[in-house]
Specification:
Layout (H helix, E strand, L loop, with lengths): L2 H21 L18 E3 L4 E5 L18 H12 E3 L5 E16 L5 H5 L4 E17 L4 E17 L4 H30 L8
Parallel strand pairs: 1-3, 2-4
Antiparallel strand pairs: 4-5, 5-6
Length: 201
């Protein structure tokens, strides 16, 4: 191989390496786990607490909840595990039922024509809904002795050209805000509707 050929080959290799470096995506961000044990537990006068999900993620558009760093349904399960405890009392049990945990994506209209070329539009909206119910049931006859339920809904829009990492941050902020709302409402509902089943420690 001549000196010129060697230089040419080296230039091609260096150029390829530079292009690869430019195309390398930054690492996906790591977000803190959303946990709720620090808020304290409701110790229920029941034999056990069952956590049940009625929500089935479709894993297809317009749903995007399966794309979240941690899917909303998993975070709702974590809430039940962190905040609900049983005394072991026989004859009665609790069911924490996840009814909804979806987030959907909607395309927003964009500014048309020449003006659109100089406008940064909000191009997608994410609409989230969480709902859950806590039931106290008697073993005999599966009779429902009391319920507390909570629902939360929030929306966020994002601009065109948003990066994958920035979108993940939007997803995290959205679920964190919804869970804060649901936690506050469930807290109120348990104290109002299930006080007779809560054991003071």
């Amino acid at each position: 191989m001549t000196l010129i050929s060697r230089r040419t080959a080296l230039s091609v290799l260096l150029a390829g390496g530079a292009l690869a470096a430019c195309s390398t995506q930054p690492p996906r961000p790591r977000f803190p786990d959303l946990t709720y044990g620090h808020l304290g537990q409701f110790t229920l006068d029941v034999a056990r607490v069952d956590i049940v999900s009625e929500y089935k993620a479709p894993f297809t558009s317009p749903n995007v909840d399966h794309l979240f760093p941690t899917p909303p349904e998993q975070i709702l399960r974590r809430w039940g595990q962190d905040r609900l405890a049983a005394t072991g009392r026989p004859g009665r049990f609790a069911r924490f039922v996840i009814q909804d945990a979806k987030v959907t994506e909607a395309e927003l209209p964009r500014t048309p024509g020449l003006r659109g070329a100089f406008t940064t539009d909000q191009t997608q909206r994410y609409d989230g809904v969480l709902s859950a119910v806590l039931e106290i049931r008697e073993e005999r006859g599966n009779f429902r002795a009391g319920t507390a339920s909570a629902w939360a809904s929030r929306s966020r829009t994002v601009p065109e050209g948003i990066t994958v990492n920035d979108r993940d941050k939007v997803f995290f902020d959205l679920i964190e805000a919804m869970m804060n709302d649901l936690n506050a409402e469930m807290d109120r509902q348990i104290k109002a509707n299930l006080a007779q089943f809560v054991v003071m420690r």
